[in-house]
Design goal:
Elements (H helix, E strand, L loop, with lengths): L8 E4 L6 E2 L10 E4 L1 H4 L2 H9 L8 E4 L4 E4 L14 H8 L2
Antiparallel strand pairs: 1-2, 1-3, 3-5, 4-5
Length: 94
C-alpha cells in the first residue's frame, strides 16, 4: 500500500476500535486499512500497482490485506515530503 492513497484510507485504531477520518492523528500501534470499497477503486488499484515508492521505516505494511501499522512515530529525517516548517509556524501563530 502506497502512502499516496491516504485520502481513501479508513483508520481503525486498536485502542479506539471505531472508524475515523483519514486525517486523524495516528499513534504508535495504530492500524490503518483501506475499506473494501476503496480496495476496488480503479484509481487506487492503479496507484498501488504502478507507484514505486519505498515504505517508510516507521510503517509496517501488509500489502495483501491493505493494512499498515504505525511501528513508531517518524523522525523529521524520515519524512521525505518537502516541508517548510517555518511557514507552518507562521500560519498557526496568526
Amino acid at each position: 500500500m502506497a502512502p499516496g492513497v491516504a485520502l481513501a484510507i479508513e483508520a481503525r485504531s486498536r485502542d479506539r476500535g471505531h472508524p475515523n477520518l483519514a486525517h486523524e492523528k495516528l499513534r504508535k500501534g495504530d492500524v490503518v486499512a483501506m475499506s473494501p470499497k476503496a480496495q476496488k477503486m480503479i484509481v487506487l488499484r492503479h496507484n498501488i500497482d504502478t507507484l514505486d515508492r519505498a515504505v517508510p521505516m516507521w510503517l509496517e505494511v501488509t500489502a495483501g490485506d491493505f493494512k499498515a501499522e504505525v511501528r513508531d512515530l517518524p523522525l523529521r529525517e524520515q519524512i521525505d515530503v518537502p516541508v517548510r516548517e517555518q511557514l507552518i509556524v507562521e500560519l498557526y501563530s496568526k
